[in-house]
Design brief:
This protein is an alpha/beta fold and about 230 residues long. It is about 40% helix and about 20% strand. It contains nine helices and twelve strands. The strands form three sheets. It has a five-stranded parallel beta sheet with strand order 2-1-3-4-5, sandwiched between helices. The longest helix has 16 residues. It is elongated and about 60 Å long.
């Protein structure tokens, strides 16, 4: 079965070049010229990967990325883990850092060689396919369903944001292991910190509160290392 790609690019020659070559290389390709059209295509077509230009006329490409990454995976029809490769003429380090911080899986600067783009597309798709698809995860009275993105503690539903859910899932997949902050930043937020950041700490704190009175026992901060999940039943 062909893997499907969505190209969100407002430059028609670039869009046609990518669509023709990727189709010739065995992908099923759809195109959109802007953020609104791209979001509708994601909802309807459920692509395996999105190639996203940033300099779109109607809106910034990162607006689309924000909508996808902030989806809860339940009420929304967007998969918050949908692979996205940014393709843009913006080569500054600040633009690259911003793209990864907002959830891009890869960042490619124009002009580029098609062979490099194809290699990056295949690499991101391999990583995406390698993500474990598991059933319900259980740690004591805490259950987490990756498919429905539902979380319960002792039968009580717990409503989490997309990032809180992803953080909890990363910890629940191997509760015997301490996950470093850099690992969590990479796996949950999609970037590696180049300095001090409180992103993981802030989300872990909110996660504790939402898990209930014993939340501090569920999400444990191992000082100087990172976080782990323990049975606080």
């Amino acid at each position: 079965m062909k893997q499907s790609l969505l190209i969100v690019e407002d430059d028609e020659p670039t869009r046609a070049f990518l669509a023709d070559n990727l189709s010739a290389d065995g992908f099923k390709v759809a195109c959109a010229g802007g953020v609104g059209e791209g979001l509708r295509a994601i909802e309807v077509r459920h692509p395996s990967l999105v190639l996203l230009d940033l300099g779109l006329e109607e809106s910034h490409g990162l607006d689309l990325l924000d909508r996808v990454r902030s989806a809860d995976g339940i009420a929304s029809r967007f998969d918050p883990d949908l692979p996205v490769i940014v393709i843009t003429g913006r080569a500054a380090e600040a633009d690259r850092v911003r793209g990864f911080a907002r959830g891009a899986d890869d960042y490619l600067v124009k002009p580029f060689h098609y062979g490099e783009l194809l290699g990056r597309v295949r690499a991101v798709l391999r990583r995406s396919a390698g993500r474990p698809r598991r059933g319900v995860l259980r740690v004591g009275e805490l259950t987490l369903d990756p498919l429905t993105r539902a979380v319960r503690v002792g039968g009580r539903p717990v409503h989490l944001s997309a990032k809180e859910f992803s953080l909890l899932q990363a910890l629940a997949e191997d509760p015997t292991r301490v996950r470093s902050k850099n690992e969590l930043l990479r796996d949950v937020w999609g970037y590696v910190s180049i300095g001090q950041t409180r992103t993981v700490d802030a989300h872990a704190c909110r996660l504790r509160r939402k898990l209930g009175p014993s939340g501090r026992g569920w999400v444990v901060n191992v000082r100087g290392v990172g976080y782990k999940l323990t049975d606080a039943s």
